[in-house]
Amino acid sequence: MSLFGNGLRRICAVAAASTAAEMAKLVRSALLETNTVELRLDWLNSDAERARFLRWLGKRHFGKATFLATCRRRDGGGKFAGGVDRELYWLTQAREAGCQWCDLEVETLSKLPGKSVHGYPVPPRVLLSLHEFERTPELPRRMDPPAGAGVDAMKLAAKAHSIQDSLRLLRLARHSRNFVAIPMGELALPARILCLREGSALSYAPVAAATASGQVSLDELKYLYRAHQLTRRTRVYGVIGEPVSHSLSPALHNTGFIARHVDAVYLPFLVHDLRDFLAAVREFGVRGFSVTHPHKRTILKYLKECDPLAAEIGAVNTVVVRRDGSLIGSNTDYIGVLRALEKKLRIRGSRVLILGAGGAARAAAFALVRSGAAVAICARREKAARELARAFGGEVVPRAALRRESFDAILNATPVGMHPHDGVSPLAPSELHCRLVMDLITRPHKTQLLKIAARKGIATVPGVEMLLEQGYAQWELWTGKRAPEAAIRRAVLRAAETSRPH
Predict the structure, then answer these.
(1) pLDDT > 70? residue 213
(2) Of residues 296, 343, 383, 446, which has the active-site annotation?
(3) Who is most buried in 31, 33, 63, 331, counting CB within 10 A?
């Protein structure tokens, strides 16, 4: 058993606020979700607020709650401006208020006599922490508390510059006891979610404000990713792309897994380099993944097999990983575009303009031509537009001609207008001469392009509709089960309406 307990107790909520009143509110919220809470005393904006908060804490009885006090100094990456003596003073006060644990940085321990906390009246259990904010250093096979230091557990938080960096930290967790692994940065987000599965004693999640890069909120860690329930038997799926922080796919697929009681989790993988990700597939236990911009065409050269439809399109958005590690590619974007558009447009005989010439545009063009539409391509890269139009017997329409051309539908397959650049549209109002506009962007739900179209009285189809349709097909391909469409739709639409991306 971990020193912090098992199951949900290993999710450590982080309470960090500038005032005692705000901290107290965060503690109450945290204890509704987990029994383990880190108190970031260094975030409080004055000694008076620290004293006020600890008085509040000391007067209350929280039953089985475990509190871990942290008053991290600036040279350890925290906000506390005082010296070692003042840090130890506040940790002593935290013990008086009922905190069972404290986090002590290696920078502080190195300044104590004998490099030991023995004799100091800090909380009875000590977590010794090391933060590497710029890199993941060379790591030993295992990391144990230094003998004679009065330390019960070790923590290493390190910035990952590659997916392989984050894997090295997970291996350290696998081979160490009473060790907390904190991979930092967006590249490390999947490893951060899987760290409990790999043996980390704790996984941190903010109740409100993030206190480190790449953090997952407490609500997401517990309910969306179910980090405390994952085991080595849990099948891992994910989305690879750059960017991926805006993706609604984790809400889509994880909701399906929960509703159908499938032991699986779906994670967002920020992928700069496909080889970096593919080298980690086996160790992460990845059984399949979605492919988004900019990897939909590049992934083709790494596949052992590709279904004929995806090969003809020339882009893959869905990969199955076989037990021998080989990759099988397919394309469900095709299905998504057709099913989403068919609800609003009679496709056969219509004239459709596609903006863009990437993987999503290729799938859309293929689907529309196969269904009897005349397709025109308009793209910033003229050569790519010509190649795509030639591949599907379409025409190329230059941007300058859009003010005088008309279409039955215009479909945006570019990332222009994607979160966080919500206020940008790929087309001006004077370029929208059509009956329907569809935007494949899913975040924000109502893009600037769709808002402009609606103001002109043009029917709109948000990208969420295409995402859902292709996602149902993808989910069923991976699981062999029927997708719980109603539950997934509710979860995705709820996530799409929120301002914070998953």
Answers:
(1) no
(2) 296
(3) 331
